[in-house]
Fold this sequence. Notes:
The protein is mainly α. It contains 12 helices and no strands.
Amino acid sequence: MMDIAAHASRRSDRYGLRDVVRSEWTKLASLRSSRWTLVAFALTGVTLGVAISAVSASLWPTASAETRAHWDPTNNTLAGLIPGYLVIPVLGVLMMTSEYTSGSARSTFAAVPRRPLVLAAKSIVFGGAVLATVEVITFVTFLAGQAVMGSAPHATIGQPGVLRALLLSGAFLVLMGLFGLGLGVIVRRSGAAVALYAAIALVAPMILSAFPGNLWRFGPIMILGNSVGAVRLLPGVLSPWVGFGVMTLYTVVSLAVGAVLLTQRDV
């Protein structure tokens, strides 16, 4: 029996990143709920983006001088991605917590004892799949939204800052999802991890807005809505690249802490 266990251990140790990525892709592709969630997000995002663009454009003729000075049709349309603020991080959370809930985490870690390798593979698969999907949704939402702007000033991809806003907005949502994945590893319970994400991304900025120092601007959703997805920045917000860097830091810390805990705790 010991020889069999040792042989199995040696075989599992030979699994490389490519093998584990292939396994994690199979898991993700087999989840019908993930596919339908992304389809629902695509339909909702485009529909909401078009609706917001049309409504904001209808108000243009009566808009004040201040409103016209800060008019940002790109940001208006990208507001349609608001459902993704929650949907993508929740998918990231479930990427890990679903295995704890079903008990399949034991099989996963038995096959691949190097647990950080599993987390790296999950991050690559989730990040790559969601990035491709979300970027397409972002561009389709933008093009559809600008098409209904009517006589109001609209944006084109070639205008300064527009392509940056589109690319970074999609990538930012992926970072939010990977941040959720890290929280899922840390907490291991779906409900608790989603609640923790909501507290960090939604509740904390509202609380911090009551304190001096503009600390609210470091909240993930505030960064996305006020800087990364904007062409005309409002005073006092982070620049798009600084904001993207802050979200990258959040994500790296979340995954790093998750990787450490993953190696120290039992399944």
